[in-house]
């Protein structure tokens, strides 16, 4: 398909502003977009911004379509290759599931004969409400593609599933729905080698709370894990990236779930299964404070520091190896400061991972842009020369794809 035509229906949610970014990405990817706003969406984003970004007229009401003698609302719903609802409110999904058509957006959704992709975004309670879950199940049974929302801190101050996935991820899903090959392959990489595979990647540090203002952390920047997620997505994999706190943009086409602590990361990894491959790059804290204080711990004037008992965190890699839904290829990372290969060989056997990618972090690897790694497999050790993290990621992604060739 040369230039896909997208009909973008924007619901009245706080994430409506992200529709502007999605319009930009669709256009950058060579598509055209026609935007329709619900009445509520007007309160969050202006038709003017969307018209400027899409370079097309924006529609808002059933009654302002000019060509109703030619059934403009039917025409609008049919001339697209794909209908995308982003953000989809709880209300819009309820109406879609019930077949209600009481405004332009819902009338188009009922009248269309094209595939429909829905990106929900709402407060966690609204998302988890049995009514919404029923509506999502109904829509999926009707053949609508409903994306899972991201999990993390929300605009309303709560935490959980309900956040709109990042626009680059939605654009990746649009490309998939249109059956287009992914763009932006690195030179020399075979496109689509991991198409149809789900790869789970963890990245970044974890933060283990001590009290409301302090935490235990490490120097991991997330750069290597993010580069690996990007390289795997470029090979056509569906990538879920479970990320500790980092300040990096989400790679194109990657579904990112933000977490803070090791226990949150373990839960997010479990929730993301099944996966064909897991690449556990995150530098998960081995220990957490046994009890995180509810209030800031104060000096008591005695000069004696407080005692901080630690508890061991769950071992995410070993847990995945024992999981009945163990990924076919399980890869762990080992950050070592001495006897790098020896420790990695022992770690692979102890955790029952398929590969351990060991890196020497005694220099400035953590936070730096280069890495030198050793891959320990069940049968031997490969040592790679020092290279940029992006190149490590591309070579590793190709090595993973070869396992599935
Ligand atoms: C400030 C504010 C933010 C809102 N954010 C959301 C949201 O993110 N998701 C959602 O489903 N509803 C949200 N709502 C409620 C919807 O706007 C409301 O259900 C509206 O009827 C949706 O209309 P629509 O589905 O026609 O766009 C929000 C309301 C307000 C006032």
TrEMBL record:
GO terms for cellular component: phosphopantothenoylcysteine decarboxylase complex. It catalyses: N-[(R)-4-phosphopantothenoyl]-L-cysteine + H(+) = (R)-4'-phosphopantetheine + CO2; (R)-4'-phosphopantothenate + L-cysteine + CTP = N-[(R)-4-phosphopantothenoyl]-L-cysteine + CMP + diphosphate + H(+). Binds 1 FMN per subunit. Signal peptide: none annotated. CTP binds at residues 286, 296, 314-317, 333, 347, 351. Its cofactor is Mg(2+); FMN. Keywords: Decarboxylase, Flavoprotein, FMN, Ligase, Lyase, Magnesium, Metal-binding, Multifunctional enzyme. Residues 194-402 form the DNA/pantothenate metabolism flavoprotein C-terminal domain. Residues 199-405 are annotated as: Phosphopantothenate--cysteine ligase. InterPro entries: CoaB-like_sf (IPR035929), CoaBC (IPR005252), DNA/pantothenate-metab_flavo_C (IPR007085), Flavin_trans-like (IPR036551), Flavoprotein (IPR003382). Pathway: Cofactor biosynthesis; coenzyme A biosynthesis; CoA from (R)-pantothenate: step 2/5; Cofactor biosynthesis; coenzyme A biosynthesis; CoA from (R)-pantothenate: step 3/5. GO terms for molecular function: FMN binding; metal ion binding; phosphopantothenate--cysteine ligase activity; phosphopantothenoylcysteine decarboxylase activity. In the C-terminal section; belongs to the PPC synthetase family. Catalyzes two steps in the biosynthesis of coenzyme A. In the first step cysteine is conjugated to 4'-phosphopantothenate to form 4-phosphopantothenoylcysteine, in the latter compound is decarboxylated to form 4'-phosphopantotheine. This is Coenzyme A biosynthesis bifunctional protein CoaBC. It comes from Rhizorhabdus histidinilytica.
């Amino acid at each position: 398909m040369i230039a896909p035509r997208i009909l973008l229906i924007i619901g009245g949610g706080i994430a409506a502003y992200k529709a502007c970014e999605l319009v930009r990405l669709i256009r950058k990817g060579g598509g055209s977009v026609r935007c329709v706003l619900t009445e509520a969406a007007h309160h969050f984003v202006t038709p003017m911004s969307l018209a400027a970004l899409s370079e097309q007229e924006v529609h808002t009401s059933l009654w302002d379509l000019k060509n109703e003698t030619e059934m403009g609302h039917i025409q609008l719903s049919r001339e697209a290759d794909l209908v995308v609802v982003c953000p989809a409110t709880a209300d819009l999904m309820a109406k879609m599931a019930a077949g209600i058509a009481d405004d332009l957006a819902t009338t188009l959704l009922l009248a269309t004969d094209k595939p429909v992709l829905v990106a929900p975004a709402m407060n966690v309670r609204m998302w988890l409400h049995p009514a919404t879950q029923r509506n999502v199940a109904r829509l999926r049974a009707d053949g609508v593609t409903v994306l899972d929302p991201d999990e993390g801190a929300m605009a309303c101050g709560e935490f959980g599933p309900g956040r709109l996935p990042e626009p680059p991820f939605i654009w990746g899903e649009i490309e998939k729905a249109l059956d287009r090959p992914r763009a932006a392959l690195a030179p020399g990489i075979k496109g689509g080698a991991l198409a149809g595979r789900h790869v789970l990647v963890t990245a970044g540090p974890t933060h283990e709370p001590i009290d409301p203002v302090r935490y235990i952390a490490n120097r991991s920047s997330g750069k290597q894990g993010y580069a690996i997620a990007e390289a795997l997505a470029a090979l056509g994999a569906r990538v879920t990236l479970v990320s500790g706190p980092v300040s990096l943009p989400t790679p194109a086409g990657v579904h990112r779930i933000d977490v803070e602590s090791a226990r949150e990361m373990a839960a997010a990894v479990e929730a993301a299964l099944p996966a064909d491959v897991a690449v556990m790059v995150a530098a998960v804290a081995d220990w957490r404070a046994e009890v995180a204080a509810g209030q800031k711990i104060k000096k008591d004037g005695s000069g004696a520091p407080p005692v901080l008992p630690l508890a061991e965190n769950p071992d995410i890699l070993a847990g995945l190896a024992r999981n009945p839904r163990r990924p076919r290829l399980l890869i762990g990372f080992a950050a070592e400061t001495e006897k790098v290969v020896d420790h990695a060989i022992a770690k692979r056997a102890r955790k029952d991972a398929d590969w351990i990618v060991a890196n020497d972090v005694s220099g400035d690897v953590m936070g730096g842009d280069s890495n030198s790694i050793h891959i320990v497999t069940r049968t031997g050790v490969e040592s790679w020369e020092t290279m940029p993290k992006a190149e490590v990621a591309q070579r590793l992604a190709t090595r993973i794809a070869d396992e599935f060739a």
